[in-house]
Amino acid sequence: MKMIGIGDNGVQGLLPQYIEWIHSCDVLVGGERHLQFFPDFVGEKKQIKGGLAKLISELQQEARNVVILVSGDPLFYGLGGVVAKKLPIEIYPYESSIQLAFARMQESWQDAYLISLHGRSNQGFAQRIDGRKKVAILTDDTNTPNTIASYLKRYGMTEYDAFVAENLEGENERCRFLTLDEMEQGTFSPLNVVILKQRVSVDRTSLGIDDELFKQRKPDKGLITKKEIRVLCLQALGLKETSTVWDIGTCTGSVAIEVAKIAREGAVFAIEKNEADLANCFENQLIHRVDFTALLGKAPQRLEEFPDPDAIFIGGNGGNMEKLLQTCISRLKPDGRLVMNIATIENLAEAMQHLKNLGCEVSVLQAQLSKSKPILNLTRFEPLNPIFIVTAQKGNER
To answer: 190-193 long-range contacts, Cβ below 8 Å, gap at least 24?
Structure first.
């Protein structure tokens, strides 16, 4: 069984050996467009449509000689990786659309960040590309060049210009350099690739965003996890780039925003019971160029809407601590971490007891910090409210 990559130029882009394999096979499998390149094929044609499970099951039972046609490089966001795990197959790639687009752009691409929005949500796109100098995007009918341009402008990512390559190697090939405004208003073929390139360099915010840079509830601005405490909590969470994280009682979203910048290939889910605070959270996401799910609700309600997390941060529990911790630990993945900020010794004692009863390994850091503050021509220290940072690690259940 062979899988052959094919371009939009059809037969003329294939090696003679590949054409011979195709015409001599018994079953030719491919998308409708691919099969139309071979009108004279005399064997059976099998069109790829719907789910792959049925196709793979049929091919596993197939004793005849089969060739599968796939666009571009089958191992670049293609069928090759899936099929190769299920079937004995030889893979012969064509140039990927990304490779061809960079060739038309006359730009090197070894330093580009590659991402597919084809059949995927664009949520999290902002933090994934933030600060990257070149970004290549596979699009679809939902995540069009127009949609991408609007999204980038919404998150203030106007440092990018675009290159859009349509119908590569086809009869109606068109490649254009565009501003985001032009891309937002343009008309494009469904078969396109978008490349973003920074016009000016933009540095990503380092760990520990200043509190003043978050929109907060007025007049009581104290409802934010202070920068110094936030950094300690982020370290305690033990995040990876691919982590899935919950932020319970997100308020301004300060912790969730910093988490999203670290776990930029993962996912962040936040919940907040105060509608005004949640509105600030949404606005802060735009300001700080991150995009995550934030819901209105009082945990543990609505947590069933989130996928199981690698880490959980609880900035405020609003009562009913036992039920909340039971829900969180039951959903937390093995070896996952839960970090809580607690202000009173009574709540500390209660949290530690619940977490130990749930089989967690628990440690506590008491943070008592003071910041320098000028007074006339002198300097004094102003204390932050003391806080207990509780870290609970779930056991490995495997």
So the answer is: 190/141, 191/8, 191/166, 191/167, 192/139, 192/145, 192/164, 192/165, 192/166, 192/167, 193/97, 193/98, 193/100, 193/101, 193/136, 193/137, 193/138, 193/139, 193/164, 193/165, 193/168
pLDDT at 204: 80
**Which tokens in the block code for residue 121?**
């949500």
DSSP 223-278: -S--HHHHHHHHHHHT--TT-EEEEES-TT-HHHHHHHHHSTTSEEEEEES-HHHH
Mind listing the domains of the chain with CATH numbers?
2-94 (3.40.1010.10), 98-198 (3.30.950.10), 211-393 (3.40.50.150)
Q: What is the pTM of this model?
A: 0.89
Q: Write out the two tokens for 191.
A: 């078969």
Those residues with Cβ within 8 angstroms of residue 35's Cβ, 6 or more apart along the chain or in another chain:
28, 41, 45, 47, 69
338 with 314: CB under 8 angstroms?
A: yes
**CA dist., res. 100 & res. 169, Å (int):** 9
pLDDT of residue 205: 76
DSSP string, 28-40: EEE-HHHHHT-TT
pLDDT tens, 360-392?
999 999 999 999 999 999 999 999 889 999 999
Contact indicator for 165, 179 with CB cutoff of 8 Å: no
Q: Which pair of tokens denotes residue 313?
A: 């941060």
Q: How many CB atoms lie within 10 A of CB 349?
A: 11
Mean of all residue pLDDT scores within the chain: 94
d(CA 193, CA 168): 9
